[in-house]
């Protein structure tokens, strides 16, 4: 039954609501921004109204089915791990888009909200807000780049383990966290690589000027 529930969650996660909303608005999200078919790119391409709807739907597909399974007692403890992770994987590797989905941020918040009754998702949101404020300050009030945003998402998830430890969550929660960290690191790999490459080139340019 766990495999069946995981399959259901994968299918729910793979529903690319934001991409489909974009098509309804005659916007192919693959042609905007970084080509990500998720909610935040929908916001960029079609405006905040559809963007908010996309965020809500992507959140709910991670939250609603999983919360029912947990509250009804169909899964508990370590059984939650593969089912929760499947929802995020479905969004990232959607069969509806030839196995190429979104970054998985909104659905991540939905999953953590279901598993921890919003506890960890709120903590993650606060961490991201703090990182964003620090990034704005370091960038002298200018908005951050897409690469920096991707970096903050990954660093925020990495930092989240400190909160899990502080709150003494059970070990299976760490399994979900680790899988989630690996997934969003993968989905942001290109941004992380570009950020590293730019920093590396800038470092060498500075060294060349000094010498």
UniProtKB/TrEMBL annotation:
GO terms for molecular function: acyl-phosphate glycerol-3-phosphate acyltransferase activity. It catalyses: an acyl phosphate + sn-glycerol 3-phosphate = a 1-acyl-sn-glycero-3-phosphate + phosphate. Keywords: Cell membrane, Lipid biosynthesis, Lipid metabolism, Membrane, Phospholipid biosynthesis, Phospholipid metabolism, Transferase, Transmembrane, Transmembrane helix. It holds the Pfam family G3P_acyltransf. It is a multi-pass membrane protein. Pathway: Lipid metabolism; phospholipid metabolism. The chain crosses the membrane at residues 7-25, 76-97, 117-138, 150-166. The keyword Transmembrane applies. The keyword Isomerase does not apply. Its EC number is 2.3.1.275. PANTHER family: GLYCEROL-3-PHOSPHATE ACYLTRANSFERASE 1, INNER MEMBRANE PROTEIN YGIH. Probably interacts with PlsX. This is Glycerol-3-phosphate acyltransferase. The gene is plsY.
